[in-house]
């Protein structure tokens, strides 16, 4: 059994470790006036607050999530697949990393149970069928 790593957000951007930002962070640049005078400005990621559904836990989880991460969640087929396929150094959110390892643990148990009694589990869904559901059934709940 692999231990769950402890991840501390980097000191570059404190908000990075409080949501699924897909590696995005605040960037800085300059705004130029017509006279040539330059002013510093910030470019922040496009962040939304929403709830995502986990098929493994059959439960909704609330996240602050960037637009690019939201696109990947929809494209890859749900929160579970996004967390499993994304490396920890991109996720950076300690709660999401713990959730990722719980998902992996639960999937391993399901796989083990499936191989142990294949004749008794004909009515249960396999791990593959959980990850290949069509995207139209993917639940996203907007919190406004």
Automatic annotation (TrEMBL):
InterPro entries: Ribosomal_bL28 (IPR026569), Ribosomal_bL28/bL31-like_sf (IPR034704), Ribosomal_bL28_sf (IPR037147). GO terms for molecular function: structural constituent of ribosome. It comes from the Eukaryota. SUPFAM superfamilies: L28p-like. The keyword Chloroplast does not apply. GO terms for cellular component: mitochondrial large ribosomal subunit. The keyword Ribonucleoprotein applies. It holds the Pfam family Ribosomal_L28. Keywords: Ribonucleoprotein, Ribosomal protein. Belongs to the bacterial ribosomal protein bL28 family. This is Ribosomal protein L28. It comes from Galdieria yellowstonensis.
């Amino acid at each position: 059994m692999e231990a769950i790593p402890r991840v501390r957000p980097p000191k570059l951007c404190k908000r990075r470790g409080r949501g699924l930002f897909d590696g995005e962070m605040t960037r800085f640049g300059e705004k130029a006036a017509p006279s040539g005078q330059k002013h510093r400005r910030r470019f922040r990621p496009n962040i939304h607050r929403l709830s995502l559904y986990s098929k493994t836990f059959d439960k909704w989880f609330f996240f602050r999530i960037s637009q690019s991460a939201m696109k990947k969640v929809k494209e890859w087929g749900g929160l579970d697949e996004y967390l499993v396929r994304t490396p920890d150094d991109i996720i950076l959110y300690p709660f999401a990393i713990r959730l990722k390892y719980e998902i992996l643990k639960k999937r391993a148990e399901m796989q083990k149970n499936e191989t142990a009694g294949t004749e008794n589990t004909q009515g249960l869904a396999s791990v593959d069928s959980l990850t290949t559901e069509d995207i139209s059934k993917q639940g996203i709940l907007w919190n406004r």
